[in-house]
Amino acid sequence: METGERLEAAVQREILEETGLRATPVSIFEIFERIMRDDSGQPEYHYVLIDYICKVAGGELRAGDDVSRVEWVRRRSLRERQLTEGTLAVIEKAFHARRNRS
Question: Does the domain formed by 1-71 have CATH 3.90.79.10?
Answer without folding.
Answer: yes
